[in-house]
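Weekly structure sync, notes
Attendees: PL (lead), two postdocs, one rotation student
Agenda item 3: pending single-chain targets
PL asked that the sequence for the first pending target be pasted directly into the notes so everyone works from the same version. It is reproduced below exactly as submitted, 369 residues in total.
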Amino acid sequence: MRKFIITCATLTLLALAPIPQDTSKLIVGSVAPSIDGLEFVQGEVVSNPKVRVVEFWATWCGPCIKSIPHINELYKSYQSDGLEVIGVSDETRAKVDPFVRKLGSQMSYTVALDPEKKISSAYMQAAGQNGIPCAFVIGQNNKIVYIGHPMEPEFTNAVKLSLTGRYDPKLSKQAAPILDAARNSFKAKNFKEGYRRFDEVIALDPMIFSDIALEKYRVMLNDEKNSVGAKNYAKEVTAAFVATGDVGALRELALTLSSDPRVSIYDNDLALVAAEAMLKSSSSSDPSANATLASVHYARGDFAKAVEAQKKAMRVASPIAKSSYKPTLDAYELAVKRGTKVAVPVAVVPKAATEKPTTVPATVPVGTP
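Predicted structure, written out during the meeting:
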């Protein structure tokens, strides 16, 4: 029996107005409404982010509070890639400000107030959503690509893939039952059948489902204990990703092979191939490629090269993102000084929708306290 994540339904939100029932209802694919009118407690609106997340929450909502660490991790991992996150509450500043200050770096993304509930009406009511937390992911064309609970793995997938223009909600929906069947096969130790179903999904679009290829690698390595097969498959995946030049897939591959804690044996040589290919395919103004290369150099013990690449990442990063690279650079420089590895804020590959969660969201109607 799976546990359930509870969401909070706000009576104040329901009382605003009837949920629209006409064709103007906000859905995936709709143009995102304006966020003009928000009052900011922390941070400010970013001009032209690659991906914007507008997440509705409240200080009194338990499930909202439980989702903050995940949202914050995602934000810190992808802020430098162009991700903006705005947490929106309709509470008073007196309620929200001390809550945010108390969390500090544990809630580092932008937080805003919606005193007139105008933004809540434009998003939540228009989308027929009566529970919080609820996140809206807005892609690079200013269209909504995801509406739902921020603890759903599909939320993470939508954010990650939208940053490189690779997210397709329809394909993700089509793949879901096939992936379920594959994972059930793995549970039954029927690896051949599980791999066949994974390959079926990958064939739909190898770059959109690059995460599946990496999950297949982890299953081979960790569950099947087939290190030889896993290494050969990693070589195939690396060659395929390099051939496409897809920077998002190459980044995930490089970090998976060099620092992902879900991997039992690293392959830093292949990780370097992926990182160098990412750098070659990236824009000169994209700092994430150099930061990824720095991470791989560090994993290989090439501390001086890690420092050099991290400095390049900082030089081309936007003013708002520069500070996110500094703690890692400091750690690399300390490693050079000591001649050994030190604790580093390692680049994270958050769990995506390709990996089935142990919990699923559910809505329980509750009112404001």
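Discussion points:
- The radius of gyration is 21 Å.
- Residues 1-6, 10-23, 348-360, 362-367 have pLDDT under 50 and may be disordered.
Action: rotation student to compare against the earlier draft before next sync.
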